[in-house]
Design a protein that fits this description.
This protein has about 120 residues and is mainly alpha-helical. It has one domain. It has five helices and no strands. The longest helix has 29 residues. It is elongated. It starts with a helix and ends in a 5-residue tail after the last helix.
Length: about 120
């Protein structure tokens, strides 16, 4: 969650400092920081998905999670030209920062141990 918050704040900062976008060092720094933090978020998301996957149907369930992630990427690719036509780049960065915080909100409602507690059969 901290990496997602950091990535969101990095995106927000990126949008706020639009006057620095012509500076190569600034763009490189913010890109490296954002990519690093979002990589941590991705690794944690995969770990969380594996943790909530029930062992009996793990392959199918995890495939479903991957399909949903791919679908969200496709939706993002479809929305990108619409947002680009409607908003300036600075506003798009603000919107992206807000959307990145949704990962935090979603993670707050996930109980990683629930699957094992409710679906694991106790030995007789």
């Amino acid at each position: 969650m901290f990496a997602a918050l950091g990535a969101s704040l990095t995106t927000l900062t990126w949008g706020m400092f639009d006057s620095m976008w012509s500076e190569g060092w600034f763009m490189m720094l913010v890109w490296i920081v954002h990519t690093f933090l979002w990589s941590i978020v991705s690794i944690c998301a995969y770990s969380l998905m594996m943790r909530v996957t029930w062992a009996e149907v793990g392959g199918t369930q995890f495939t479903g999670y991957m399909a949903m992630m791919n679908l969200s990427a496709i939706i993002g690719y479809q929305l990108a030209p619409i947002f680009a036509a409607r908003y300036d780049y600075q506003t798009i960065f603000y919107i992206a920062a807000m959307l990145e915080t949704f990962v935090i909100l979603a993670a707050l409602f996930v109980d990683p141990g629930e699957t094992r507690r409710t679906l694991t059969q106790e030995p007789l």
